[in-house]
What does this fold into?
Amino acid sequence: MTACPPRPASTERGNRRGNGQLQATAQRPLAQALRAAALAGMLPGVLLALLSTLMLAAPARANEPVSPAQRAAAQQVARAGVPLSALADNAPASHTVQRGDTLWAIATLFLKSPWRWPELWGMNLAEIANPHLIYPGQVLVLTQTGDTVQLRLAGGRADGAAAASSDQPPTNTVKLSPRVRSQLLENGAIASFPLQSIGPFLNEAMVFSQDELAGAPRIVATQEGRVMVSRGETAYVRGDLRGQRSFTLFRDSKPLRDPTTGEVLGFEAGYVGTADLVRAEGVAASDGLPVPATFVMTSARQEAGVGDRLAPVPARDFSAYVPHPPAAPMNGQVITVYGEALTAGQNQIVALNRGLRDGIERGHVLALWRAGKPATDSTGPRAQPIQLPDERSGLLFVFRVFERVSYALILSAFEPVRSGDRVTQP
It folds into this structure.
């Protein structure tokens, strides 16, 4: 008898139906690998035909972003393995993927630099063709060859049991035994990054140019002449809504200046809340005067008032939040700490003086550097002023990008982060 072959990364969703129908989303490279295994006498022909048919007929999840650079890095690692020096000091021999895991968290277990997720993907590229199709219950096992290691699926078994030796003669009999059946919800694959860390800021962090701010829709009156309105109350708005219905409210915009040149890169708007369109703007039939649009406040961090500006609520596209380094060298600075604080630490937000035009992307991981302080060398005949070198002080994760400004989450910080601190590729 022969053990079941390693299952594709997504077939853990398969046992969903009572009749045992599989719902695999494995991809063509894995089917080709199985065919090669069959030619080598490792898989029975009947079982191979069944698996190949299921995998090639199943829809692939092709909408997840994998850049050419990431794929190239993964393919290189898949061929050569990862040096032992790249492993974390306490890397486990295996890990069973749990609900709530992320690729970032798993990479932290195995690698010294968790943002190097393409290497984690590359270590199991032959078995997991898409890094976004790793599911709870799968077991990842480190295997060492010389001075390199690779990460593989433990035969697709949730209990981590090893597959039967390939030395056993193949048969057409499959041994079945009782086991726990995992039923995952749709899109049950683990995420790349802990999105709850940045979720609260996705609608809040907003940068306008001077023209955008001047032309943004604004509140011109409030319900029954009130000074301020809160959740569930009505506000009246004029301006071009551009067909949108859900908006974020801002006020007290402040200029974001480059720490070195002093140039204004944009205007950061203070978050007020959200509002939905109830009735569009029109014209009074009696006298032809403009009638503002009617909005109802759906959430409020602070009360809204006349003069507050509106911007459409951005679509939350979580698919691009994949940690990766910039493709080219980058040198920027922290403009300011989001909010009222003067310094920031882990899990706080900072604005950077680099944006789309500088090649910054969502998901970029950047190194933080603290500028070296002036000092004095008093060991010689005369005291001499010196400049201490910059020291690396942490990591950032870019999650929102504008034309000339971007926002980043502080992943780690050895010292308080301040305006003017330098950021580079990691």
